[in-house]
């Protein structure tokens, strides 16, 4: 990127196919989208990446901003000579997508915002989380985060999927988690949501305690002509309801 940060990515181009960019949640990596890649790579050139501070990307010191995370995406598609793309983001990825939706709509074919929010205050809660992860490491985060990310039924029925996400959390650098947490702490995208001028799909989990359904409802009410789909899931609906998520996303993209 323009500040020297290296962003890890996986680009699978398909001749003549539009590009779909996949942006993961806080504390995960591009592997979060394994099920989406398997389901959609027959129709789309898929670009997934690790946000700065996560996965195989560099881990700069200090706080990050949503502006910085958004410019990372623009730098990545510029480097790959991608003029326009569909963008789908989960949680933090959806926040990055909201930034792109009003700051760089000319680069987007469509926008999918899953299990995300325009504002996740109060900032003091994020300040406490940042202090905790920098002091105690990621191990202390795993159990409470997984309880919020998956319903109890899914945790019991699909332990392999839950363990895979737990491994992503544990492998995230505390500084990277804290840096991206600062971006969420300082974020308020409510005033700019009406400026998003891109065909938009909002996906909610009806049992999501992290970004509750009313957060999705706000986005749909604020973004012109946005569409809402609610899935029987908690926070990571693309994992917990992968087949329904994939069908919903494919239907939306094909209408574009």
List keywords for this structure.
alpha/beta, 7 strands, 256 residues, seven-stranded mixed sheet
Task: Tell me what you see in this structure.
The protein is α/β, with parallel strands linked by helices. The chain has helices spanning 34-40, 66-79, 92-103, 123-136, 139-149, 152-157, 159-171, 174-185, 213-222, 237-240, 242-255, and strands at 9-12, 19-23, 45-49, 85-90, 108-114, 200-205, 227-231.
Structural category is alpha/beta
The largest sheet, given as strand count, sense and whether it forms a barrel, is: 7 strands, mixed
Write down the overall mean pLDDT: 97
Q: Supply the number of helical segments.
A: 11
What is the N-to-C succession of helices and strands?
EEHEHEHEHHHHHEHEHH
Instruction: State the share of residues found in helices, binned by percent.
Output: 40-55%
User: How is the largest sheet built, in terms of strand order?
Assistant: 1-3-2-4-5-6-7
Tell me the total number of β-strands: 7
Please mark out the parts with pLDDT under 50 across 5 or more consecutive residues, or reply none.
none
Radius of gyration: 17 Å
Strand content: 5-15%
- The general outline is globular
Tell me the span between the first and last alpha carbons.
30 Å
């Amino acid at each position: 990127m323009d500040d020297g940060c290296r962003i890890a990515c996986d680009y699978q181009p398909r001749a003549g196919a539009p590009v779909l960019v996949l942006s993961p949640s806080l504390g995960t990596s591009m592997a979060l989208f394994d099920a989406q890649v398997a389901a959609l790579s027959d129709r789309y050139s898929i670009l997934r990446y690790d946000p700065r501070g996560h996965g195989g990307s560099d881990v700069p010191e200090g706080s990050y901003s949503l502006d910085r995370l958004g410019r990372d995406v623009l730098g990545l598609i510029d480097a790959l000579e991608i003029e326009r793309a569909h963008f789908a983001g989960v949680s933090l990825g959806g926040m990055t997508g909201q930034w792109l939706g009003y700051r760089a709509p000319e680069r987007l074919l469509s926008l999918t915002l899953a299990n995300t929010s325009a504002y996740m205050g109060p900032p003091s809660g994020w300040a406490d989380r940042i202090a905790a992860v920098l002091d105690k490491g990621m191990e202390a985060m795993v159990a409470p985060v997984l309880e919020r990310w998956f319903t109890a039924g899914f945790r019991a029925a699909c332990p392999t999927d839950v363990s895979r996400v737990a491994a992503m959390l544990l492998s995230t650098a505390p500084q990277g988690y804290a840096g991206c947490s600062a971006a969420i702490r300082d974020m308020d995208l409510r005033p700019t949501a009406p400026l998003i001028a891109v065909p938009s799909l909002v996906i909610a989990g009806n049992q999501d305690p992290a970004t509750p359904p009313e957060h999705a409802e706000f986005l749909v009410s604020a973004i012109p002509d946005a569409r809402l789909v609610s899935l029987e899931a908690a926070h990571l609906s693309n994992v917990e309801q992968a087949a329904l998520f994939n069908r919903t996303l494919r239907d939306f993209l094909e209408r574009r």
